[in-house]
Structure formats: structure tokens, C-alpha cells
Amino acid sequence: TFAKEVEEKVNRADGVHLLSEVPQEDLHAIMKNSFAVVNSSISEGMSAAILEAMDLNVPVLARDIPGNAAVIVHQTTGLLYSTPQEFVQQAKTLMKDPVLYREIVRKGHEYVLKHHSWEKERKVYQNLVLRLRECSCIKKP
């Protein structure tokens, strides 16, 4: 499988670690100390892990699926790949190009601040509740 092929390549690479489940309290510290975060999902909506990595100023390499591509503009807010070979190539590019690395970090962080900040999310939900109350879809207490 694709995941097995990636895992085999990762196990042969120096300085690359594949982590299984991590307690939530440790997750952001690990992400902040990582060179990059990888999302290898074959099917997913918008990934909170990708947005968290961008918010923490960590570049993202993600499988090119609709949910990931909705957030990542290739070589702008992150790197997208479709095959194990593309993953390896994108990872090498990111390691060898410090200018690209910094730009992806900067633009990814800007994207999250502009489109997914806590304040923006709060306002969206607040407006939704207000609209629902106005249309009598929710009974007022």
C-alpha cells in the first residue's frame, strides 16, 4: 500500500520519524520542533492538523486530495504530492531550499490568520446562531 511504501522509505531516512498517536498536550511541542508535518490521508475534509501546523509556523507536505488542496496552494502555503516518489522529491526540495521553506512557513501562517483564526471562526458561528434565531429555526429561551 501507499502508506506502507512511505513508511519503508521513512524508516530508511536519517532524521525522519514516523509517530503514532501522541497525547494532545505533547502534540504542538512536537510539531513546533519538527522540520515539517506530513499529512498522508487518502480521504479527508479540511485537516485541523494542517491548519495547526501552519499556525505553528511549520511547513506541511500533504497528499494531493481535495480537502488538503482546499487549504494548500502547492509551493505557496505547503507542498502537495500524489505518489511516494513525489513525496520524497517534495521533501528533498523543502530540505534543500531555505527560501522556499521560509516562504511556505510565512504564507501558510498568513493563510491561517486570514481564513481560520479563532476570532474569525467565532464570528462565523456567532452569525450562524443569530441567523438561525432570526428565522425561528431555534426557539428563543
UniProtKB/TrEMBL annotation:
Keywords: Glycosyltransferase, Transferase. SUPFAM superfamilies: UDP-Glycosyltransferase/glycogen phosphorylase (SSF53756). The keyword Glycosyltransferase applies. InterPro entries: Glyco_trans_1 (IPR001296), Glycosyltransferase_G1 (IPR052622). Residues 8-108 form the Glycosyl transferase family domain. One of its GO terms (molecular function) is glycosyltransferase activity. The keyword Transferase applies. PANTHER family: GLYCOSYLTRANSFERASE 1 DOMAIN-CONTAINING PROTEIN 1, PTHR46660. This is Glycosyl transferase family 1 domain-containing protein.
